[in-house]
């Protein structure tokens, strides 16, 4: 029987460091963070130099898989598409190290570190970036396609496009709805084109997409709330998942957008490509649900808490005339104002299973906190163990009900650079002591997760979900 994949996840920019070594060129994140004097990932967890040690921890921790991403700016060095052999060599070493340790590599091709030379030409709102991406994926498939059996085209298209083009807290730091829609469309087109390229090569593997999943719940059963829920589902999930899994952009979403925005760049030729090239599996990153009510008043507002330490309600989502997100007073929230709601993962998996009937991987799930990792005693993160236990219980319950969930990845393997939140937002099962030579210190949760992996989930307490 196919074994369930148990592991952890990282992303290149967030853990590798070595930002200008061995021919890696500047990414849009390097450029944006350096130019705005923000905390950067120049060193991050120094995984570039320590990947062997990190993979050894995975093996010793009972993991049988590792989800990581390839840095496009390490692999392609200029606008002509020339390949950097040192970048290729590095990822061969990481993949080989995984395989030698019995760890299935689960490879994300794009986790947000766009080469700056492409951003300067317009990034994701320029259709030429789709062509550049197709060149890059072909290099990736030809180099690694015999060893890697699980590829992900994009990590979280909704999240990086909305953050970069609408909220403005990620590069290229714009606040423009028109460009948000256009960028989203080109990314989903690039996803379909990459699938088509992959299939042409007849490799023995699967290809999917990873979505920032926020299953939608309503505050009550009224018709108004149901309409708000549909709007929220289109906004949060459907334009990625329907497009990737069914090859269709939801018609009510398109109709609504077309009354206000120019969508003439959406062509029948592209839509044919999207229709014919759908994913083999769906990756879901689950941090929290979206609880919504009908829109009442106010302008569109999207506020994300990147500061930590604040009260419930410090993040906010209002989409004018569509819906408003609300906070459940009964729920627990993290220091970054993320709701802790394991039941939402169970319900969410069932929604995706019933709608798309495809294999599912939970490609990210985890919880962050401020943690003092300076001492020598074991870091006690019981709160994380409880969080992970309840979310794994949700997955096992969904599997029992027939959902085809094939793997689970904790975010993150070790502490890493958490985008605009910096390094103080710690997610890892293994601490990285940045004040003390980046030494690795496995937390209590690391040893707990080892038992989960080795028992294939049998030690999970399923009573609370
Ligand atoms: C997901 C991203 C990851 C990771 C995680 C935690 O959206 O795929 O890259 O960062 O969320 O988010 P954050 O670091 O903002 O807390």
How would you portray this structure in words?
The chain is α/β, with parallel strands linked by helices. The chain has a single domain (5-215, 236-286, 339-454), classed as Glycosidases (TIM Barrel, Alpha-Beta Barrel). The protein has helices at 12-15, 28-35, 47-60, 72-75, 85-100, 116-119, 127-144, 157-167, 177-200, 223-246, 251-258, 268-276, 342-356, 382-400, 444-454, and strands spanning 5-9, 65-69, 104-108, 150-155, 206-213, 216-218, 281-286, 290-293, 301-303, 316-319, 323-325, 332-333, 339-340, 360-364, 405-411, 430-433, 439-442. The strands form four sheets. Strands 1-2-3-4-5-7-14-15 form an eight-stranded parallel barrel, surrounded by six helices. Strands 6-8-11-10-9 form a five-stranded mixed beta sheet. Strands 12-13 form a two-stranded antiparallel ribbon. Strand 14, helix 14 (382-400) and strand 15 form a beta-alpha-beta unit. Helix 3 (47-60) packs parallel to helix 5 (85-100) and helix 7 packs parallel to helix 9. The longest helix is centred in the middle third of the chain and has 24 residues, at 177-200. The radius of gyration is 21 Å and the shape is globular. The mean pLDDT is 96. Bound molecules: 6-O-phosphono-beta-D-galactopyranose. 6-O-phosphono-beta-D-galactopyranose binds next to loops.
